[in-house]
Structures are given as C-alpha cells and as structure tokens.
Amino acid sequence: MGLLHYISYIAVAATLCFVILSLASGLLYISELIEEHAKVAKYYGQKGIYVIIGLQTVLYLTESLPLHLTLFTVGCHLVYLQNFSSSWPLISLTSPTFIGSCVLVVTDHFLWFFHFTSRTASYNEQARRYGTRSAGTRLGFKEIASFFGICVWLAPLFLFLSLSANDNALPTTGSSESIAAASGEPKTKALLHHVRLCHH
Question: Tell me: the pLDDT tens digits for 67-103?
Fold first, then answer.
C-alpha cells in the first residue's frame, strides 16, 4: 500500500468532521431563527405536520405500507401538534404532551425500523427463490432514509430545536408574579421593587 492509501483515511476523517461541524452550525442557525421568528416558525411547523400526515397517507396508498403503522405515525404527529400551544416556543419539559412526544418518536422509529428490516429480508428471500422479477418492489437505502427523515424525524427535530428558546426566555409581562419568578424574590418584595422602578 502506498502513501496515498493512508492519506485517504485522513481525508475521509477530515471530511466527516467538516460535515458534522456544518450540520451542527446549521441546526444552531435554525434554532436561532425559530427563537427570533417564533410566530412564523409556529405557522410553518403546524402546516408542516399537516403536510407530513398527508404524505403518510399517500405513501400508504402507493407504497403498500401497513395500515396500523401508518395510523400510529399519524397519531404521533397529532400528539406533536399539541406542543404548538399558545405559549410556544416555550415548552414545559415535564408536560405530559412533551414526555409523550419523546416516547412516541422513539417507538415510531423502532416500529418502522423493524418493518423495513423485515420487508427487506422478505424481498431478499423471495429474490433468491423466485428471481428478482417475482420478488416485488424493493425499497433501497435512499427511499428508506428519506421516509425516516421526513415522516419520522422531521417534526420531532423541529420541536427539539425550538427548545433552545426556553433557555433565553424572559418574563412576558411586568406583573409581580413574573418579576418574582425571574428574580427569585417574594411577591411582596418584588412588587415594591417594581413600584420604585415605575416612580423613577
């Protein structure tokens, strides 16, 4: 083996690092956009979930996807939709909706993973026995990865990126409760402090 062979390993490692850093920078930029334009992001987030539900229905009709998994994924996205409440992008990490969304996205991922694994194994077995022409339609890596990226991961990823707004959130009103919550002071003391600020 020549020197070029070893250099290729370094080049591949450097490329992977560059891709990972670029992906991280892109996700950070998207999270900042969601934080700065929350109303617009909420609109497109909700419409995007409706589009995914429609796409899932079309794929069921055209790609022979199982009905029970299709209905489960649609139900998952209806739960994701509940996170777009009036307080969005502020999402309570302890709310039943958010916890349910976390459980559902993991469950949905593994259910579809096992389905496509079984489907690919069945196709390979039929191709071995009867030939490729009689084996039916085979979904390749690109098709399966696209399905996972759009129909399984996209909406939860959008919600995950919106969580960054929780870290930089300020009280939305000037009430004594908001001041007390922000400063950790008792309500009475916070109210007196607020009155002094108003007089100045």
Answer: 999 999 999 999 999 888 877 777 788 889 889 999 9
- 187 and 112 share one domain: no
Q: What is the pLDDT of residues 122-180, one digit of tens each?
A: 777 776 776 655 445 677 888 888 899 999 999 998 888 887 766 555 444 443 343 34
Do 178 and 165 belong together in one domain?
no
Residue 103 CB partners (closer than 8 Å, separation 6+): none
Residue at token pair 């502020």: 90
Residues 111 and 193 in one domain: no
**Residue 150 contacts residue 63 (beta carbons within 8 Å):** no
Is the same domain home to 187 and 138?
no
pTM for the whole structure: 0.69
- Domain of 187, in residue numbers: 172-200
CA separation for the pair 87, 188 (Å, rounded): 26
Do 192 and 152 belong to one domain?
A: no
Examine residue 7 and state whether it is found in any structural domain, yes or no. no
In this predicted model, what pLDDT tens digit does every residue of 10-47 receive, in sequence order? 888 888 888 888 877 877 777 787 778 888 888 988 99
